Amino acid sequence: MLSKYLDVKIFLASLAFGLFAVYITVPAEKKIMVYPSPDNVEILQYKDKTGTCFSFQQKEVQCPRDSSKIETLKPQA
């Protein structure tokens, strides 16, 4: 019944062309770097280079009086 209205060869060729067109026009993935802040610390999980997922817990602490004890941590790229 459908072969009366539909040519299978043209349908398959059109389907293959359409799938190929969609495959080559998909935009590239974009990496978004998100750093923890007081606003998002509760809701986000992070993944490091080894694939390990983790999250942060916010804790208020006293700053040391000796500034040499304060360390700056660089985020992983």
Can you give a write-up of this model?
The protein has 77 residues and is mostly helical. The protein has one domain (2-56). It contains one helix and two strands. Strands 1-2 form a two-stranded antiparallel sheet. Strand 1 (46-47) and strand 2 form a beta hairpin. The longest helix is centred in the first third of the chain and has 18 residues, at 8-25. It starts with 7 loop residues before the first helix and ends in a 23-residue tail after the last strand. 0% of the residues are buried. The mean pLDDT is 87.
The total number of structural domains is 1
Mean pLDDT: 87
Number of helices: 1
* Poorly predicted parts: none
**Biggest pleated sheet:** 2 strands, antiparallel
Overall shape: it is rod-shaped
Strand content: 5-15%
Secondary-structure element pattern, one letter each: HEE
How much helix, percentage-wise, in residues?
10-25%
Number of strands: 2
Which structural class do the helices and strands define? Answer: mainly alpha
**Major sheet: order of its strands?**
1-2
First CA to last CA: what distance?
59 Å
Question: Radius of gyration from the CA trace?
Answer: 27 Å
